[in-house]
């Protein structure tokens, strides 16, 4: 494989572009100039949960939605195919998924080949760069990828790509693609591997686009956010069949399809282009809502799970709903003073707040959708929860056992993502506690693997509802969760 520097640069920009697909993951109130240390609010009186009502949705065709998801160029730009072919080798069989058109049948699942409005044949990212992952040797569409590395900025290497191109239109297309990645780079590097800078991507893209025309401005129109990326864990898509709002703070309301298509903010520079993409995104939404979670692949102790169902009903169902016959999901946001988890996003002190939320609500995207954040976190449905480690909105807890026992949560840890290291007993990833945090590690390669819960936005505090359970009851709940 040639041009290793370009390979790294291209992969980085592709990943950043794809992360725009989940770039409106949450929102808060007025932004702060700095990101404060965040922990739960210690209010004396717990406020009541906030019910999130549903909104009418446009209907769509799920089968057509899958085709659009994997074959359409809704991100809007990419690497010219002539350069891509020189850099990337043939994909492995494990990178291919069925049901793609002839053009994309041999393209990795997280990339799409298409023709830009300017007539350039390119390979660019799609939503599956963040919203698909390998599980049990198979690509599971809708499972968040928690192994990506957004910590490195390869923008300085991207100029190497120009040497591979001779056609002026292709050079211009690559310049556009790389330029968007360079605009994002300084603001979208989290401290650790495995989390995404989704909120920060949205803030930077919105800051560069005219709210009325969607035209890109190389000079930011809005103030840029602080260069500190608050971490976000990628939630599974199959939850959307139950949820009335899309994101961790219930920010995504109104027409979900219009919000889902904000991946296009990376390179779509006109309302007309956005309208063309919006025309088929109700189909994409219909496909997303048709997804079912993967079944737990190992044996389950039926008697222990039955006991766990009873414990779950008294300890967890109030927020997370019930399952099986007569299943119900309450669609509740749990206020910060109750849940106590890292408040950085929900308190409105992250980058994606204030002027950026206003931009969305007054743009083409906000015509039939809006971001209306609550001061708390949306308690998710738990279908397929066994497959979605790590946990909490910032990925700060590696396994369910520690979700149910806050004393078992490490302050500093390195977690595995190797399939053989999945821990069925704790229902999550095996991890290695570390004696010190990132500040004490001089090697940047090792440092970025450390999840440091003392950093702003990375706290693993709160959600102590399982602390009072006995070890036997906790084990029973874990066994029951395997059945969901």
Explain what this protein looks like in three dimensions.
- With 484 residues, the protein is an alpha+beta fold.
- It is 28% helix and 10% strand.
- It has 16 helices and 15 strands.
- It has helices at 4-19, 62-71, 81-87, 128-131, 168-184, 198-207, 256-260, 271-278, 281-290, 302-315, 317-320, 336-339, 355-362, 400-403, 444-447, 471-481, and strands spanning 50-51, 79-80, 111-115, 121-125, 132-135, 138-141, 252-254, 332-335, 369-371, 376-378, 412-415, 422-423, 428-429, 431-433, 451-452.
- The chain has a three-stranded antiparallel sheet with strand order 1-8-10.
- A hairpin with a 2-residue loop joins strand 5 and strand 6.
- Helix 1 (4-19) packs across helix 5 (168-184).
- The chain is globular and about 70 Å long.
Count up the helices.
16
Q: What is the mean pLDDT?
A: 89
Structural class of the secondary elements? alpha+beta
* Poorly predicted runs: 1-11, 24-43
Strand content: 5-15%
Count every beta strand, where a strand is a DSSP E run of 2 or more residues: 15
Radius of gyration: 22 Å
Q: Percent of residues in helical segments? A: 25-40%
Distance between the termini: 43 Å
Helix-strand layout with pairing:
Elements: H1 4-19, E1 50-51, H2 62-71, E2 79-80, H3 81-87, E3 111-115, E4 121-125, H4 128-131, E5 132-135, E6 138-141, H5 168-184, H6 198-207, E7 252-254, H7 256-260, H8 271-278, H9 281-290, H10 302-315, H11 317-320, E8 332-335, H12 336-339, H13 355-362, E9 369-371, E10 376-378, H14 400-403, E11 412-415, E12 422-423, E13 428-429, E14 431-433, H15 444-447, E15 451-452, H16 471-481
Helix pairs in contact: 1-5, 2-9, 6-13, 10-16
């Amino acid at each position: 494989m040639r041009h290793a520097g370009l390979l790294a640069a291209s992969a980085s920009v592709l990943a950043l572009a794809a992360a725009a697909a989940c770039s409106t993951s949450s929102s808060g109130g007025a932004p702060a100039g700095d990101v404060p240390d965040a922990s739960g609010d210690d209010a004396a009186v717990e406020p009541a949960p906030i019910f999130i009502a549903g909104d009418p949705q446009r209907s769509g065709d799920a089968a057509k939605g899958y085709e659009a998801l994997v074959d359409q160029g809704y991100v809007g730009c990419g690497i010219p195919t002539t350069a891509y072919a020189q850099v990337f080798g043939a994909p492995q069989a494990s990178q291919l998924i069925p049901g793609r058109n002839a053009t994309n049948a041999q393209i990795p699942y997280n990339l799409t080949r298409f023709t830009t409005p300017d007539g350039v044949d390119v390979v660019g990212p799609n939503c599956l760069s963040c919203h698909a992952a390998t599980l049990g040797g198979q690509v599971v569409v809708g499972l968040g990828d928690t192994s990506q590395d957004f910590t490195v900025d390869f923008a300085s290497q991207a100029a190497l790509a120009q040497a591979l191109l001779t056609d002026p239109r292709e050079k211009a297309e690559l310049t556009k693609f790389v330029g968007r990645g360079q605009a994002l780079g300084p603001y979208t590097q989290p401290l650790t591997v495995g989390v995404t800078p989704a909120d920060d991507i949205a803030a930077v893209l919105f800051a560069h686009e005219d709210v009325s025309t969607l035209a890109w401005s190389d000079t930011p129109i809005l103030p840029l956010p602080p260069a500190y990326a608050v971490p976000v864990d990628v939630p599974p898509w199959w939850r959307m069949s139950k949820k009335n709002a899309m994101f961790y703070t219930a920010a995504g309301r109104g027409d979900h399809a219009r919000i889902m298509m904000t991946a296009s903010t990376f390179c779509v520079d006109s309302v007309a282009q956005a309208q063309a993409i919006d025309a088929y995104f109700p189909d994409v939404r219909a496909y997303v809502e048709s997804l079912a979670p993967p079944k737990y692949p190992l044996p389950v102790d039926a008697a222990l799970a039955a006991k766990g169902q009873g414990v779950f009903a008294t300890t967890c169902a109030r927020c997370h709903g019930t399952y099986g016959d007569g299943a119900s999901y309450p669609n509740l946001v749990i206020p910060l003073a109750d849940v106590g988890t890292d408040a950085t996003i929900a308190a409105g002190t992250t980058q994606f707040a204030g002027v950026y939320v206003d931009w969305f609500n007054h743009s083409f995207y906000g015509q039939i959708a809006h971001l209306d954040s609550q001061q708390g976190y949306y308690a998710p449905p738990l279908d397929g929860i066994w497959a979605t480690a790590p946990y909490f909105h910032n990925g700060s807890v590696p396994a369910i056992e520690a979700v149910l026992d806050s004393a078992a949560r490490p302050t500093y840890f390195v977690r595995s993502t190797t399939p053989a290291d999945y821990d069925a007993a704790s229902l999550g990833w095996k991890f290695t506690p570390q004696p010190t945090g990132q500040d004490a590690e001089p090697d940047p390669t090792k440092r970025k693997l450390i999840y440091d819960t003392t950093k702003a936005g990375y706290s693993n505090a709160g959600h102590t509802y399982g602390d009072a359970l006995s070890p036997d009851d906790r084990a029973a709940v874990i066994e029951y969760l395997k059945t969901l």
